[in-house]
Amino acid sequence: MSKKAKVISNLSWLASFFVLLGVVYLVTSVSRTKDETATQTEKYIHLAVGLGCMAIGGLGILAIRVYSKKFATSPEMMALTNSAKELTSSLMMELNVPVSSMKMDINYEMQVFVENDMLCFADLHGVYALPLSGFVDITRINKSIALPNWNKETSPKDEQYKTYKIRDNDMGMYTIKPYYQVNLKIQGEDYQITLPNYELKNFLSILTLNVKDQPKKRK
């Protein structure tokens, strides 16, 4: 692990530790407010320590975001990224994944293609094939969903993604609304695949399915 990567890892660990410690002290302070044997000073100390730890953890998270952005554009990180791309390409070739396959976020980044009446999803572990006949339709879910990371080479703030209202938070995660649920029925069993809103167009270019709205709940 490089020096910069170690700094990010250590900051992540420290930030998580202080946030957790802050939560513990805040919970304790709440319980002590109901404890008649605890002095007022003890109650304030636990509250102050809890808030202080949460503040330190928050600053740590902010520092990680700033440092990570600088690290992401460094020559060292660029070289590491290029090496990872070359390795991924080699593995995809060994798995006989066609060059024409489309890279998509399906729960996580996968190569998607059609072969022998099967819709195939390939990652570094292998190729997973589902019969085209098993795909039923797609449901639009009008709720937010969190993305643990951003896999695209283009920033989520780029013009092409503006219509999807992708938001990031202080924890480095992204949220989108709505998202889509690809519905399948295979051998009598129902299955779903979660699809980010920005991947719907790409998915439909590979497999044409009817897109419907989620049924409204009865009051």
Compute the separation of the termini in Å. 55 Å
Q: What does the largest sheet look like?
A: 4 strands, antiparallel
Task: Give the number of helices.
Answer: 4
Radius of gyration, taken over Cα atoms and rounded to an integer in Å: 23 Å
- H/E element order: HHHEEEEEEEEEEHE
State mean pLDDT (0 to 100 scale).
Answer: 78
Structural class: alpha+beta
Count the beta strands: 11
Strand residue content: 25-35%
User: What ranges have pLDDT less than 50 throughout 5 or more consecutive residues?
Assistant: none
Q: What coarse outline follows from CA principal-axis ratios? A: elongated
Your description of this structure?
By secondary structure, the protein is α+β, with helices and mostly antiparallel strands. Helix content is about 40%, strand content about 25%. The protein has 4 helices and 11 strands, in the order αααββββββββββαβ. The protein has helices spanning about 5-35, 40-70, 75-95, 200-205, and strands at about 100-105, 110-115, 120-125, 125-130, 135-140, 145, 165-170, 175, 180-185, 190-195, 210-215. It has a 4-stranded antiparallel beta sheet, covered by helices on one side. Strands 10-9-5-11 form a 4-stranded mixed beta sheet, with no helix packed on it. A 3-stranded antiparallel beta sheet has the order 6-8-7, with no helix packed on it. A hairpin with a 2-residue loop joins strand 3 and strand 4 (about 125-130). The radius of gyration is 23 Å and the shape is elongated. The N and C termini lie far apart (about 55 Å).
